[in-house]
Amino acid sequence: MEGGRAAARYGSLESTRWPPAGTAAEDEIISMADSTTTIDDIEGELFKIERIREILVRRESELRYMMDDIQLCKEISRLKKELQKLIALPETEKSNEEKQREEELVQQIHKLVETRDFLVDDVEFERLREREEDKEMAEFLQTPVKEKKMTSRGQQTSTPYMTKTGLTLLKECCGFTCSIM
Question: In this record, what's one Pfam family (predicted)?
Answer without folding.
Answer: bMERB_dom
